Amino acid sequence: MSTDQDRDQLHRDGRCDVVVEIPRGSRNKYEASENGEIWFDRRLGGPAGFPGDYGYVIGSAGEDGDALDALVLLEEATFPGVHMRCRVIGAFSLQVGDIAETKLIVVPETDHHADHLHDLGDLPPAFLDELDAFFTAYRMLEDVPVDVRDRLDRSQAIEVLVAGEG
């Protein structure tokens, strides 16, 4: 993206640029520093790894003051530091301790395996339940309660994305 105006239009179109911090299947949690370095943060407690690549949206702000988080649904993991253009299909609204957080659910724009995914309703109900279970449990050994408050459809998720433009 060349300008903030270009990025704002991208967001209004329901698209965003995501930087991967954590590959699909990993239980290691990494964080990107302000200069782009990837640092090991901690290992997730519990038995489950991330159900997709997990990272943040460039040029956005989430409710917790950090960049807006995004879970990228794809069949094969990438690696920390990868940038990808994604299409928003929905979001999960969480209560993480005392903080309300939204996790965008996105698919890579150039992944033809995801061409049929346009909204959360296009995902199998059992997979949505798995995402609920993951978000509820991913901090289970940290004494930080997590509750899934709501599933947001594509238009609601785009509203969150546009509201968080940084």
The value of Rg in angstroms is: 15 Å
**Number of H/I helices:** 3
Percent of residues in beta strands?
35-45%
Shape: globular
Describe the strand arrangement of the main beta sheet, using strand numbers: 1-4-5-7-6
**Euclidean distance between termini CA atoms:** 14 Å
Order of helices and strands: HEEEEEEEHEH
What share of the residues lie within helices?
Answer: 10-25%
Uncertain stretches of 5 or more adjacent residues: none
Major pleated sheet: 5 strands, mixed, barrel
The computed structural class is alpha+beta
In total, the number of strands is 8
Mean pLDDT: 89
What features would you highlight for this structure?
single chain, 166 residues, alpha+beta, 5-stranded mixed beta barrel, 3 helices, 36% strand, globular, magnesium, hydrolase, Pyrophosphatase, EC 3.6.1.1
Overview of the molecule:
The chain has 166 residues and is of the alpha+beta class. The chain is built from three helices and eight strands, in the order αβββββββαβα. The protein has a five-stranded mixed β-barrel with strand order 1-4-5-7-6. A hairpin with a 2-residue loop joins strand 6 and strand 7 (99-108). The longest helix is centred in the C-terminal third of the chain and has 13 residues, at 125-137. It is globular, with a radius of gyration of 15 Å. The mean pLDDT is 89. InterPro entries: Pyrophosphatase, Pyrophosphatase_sf. Pfam families: Pyrophosphatase (PF00719). It comes from Nocardioides cremeus. It is an enzyme of class 3 (hydrolase).
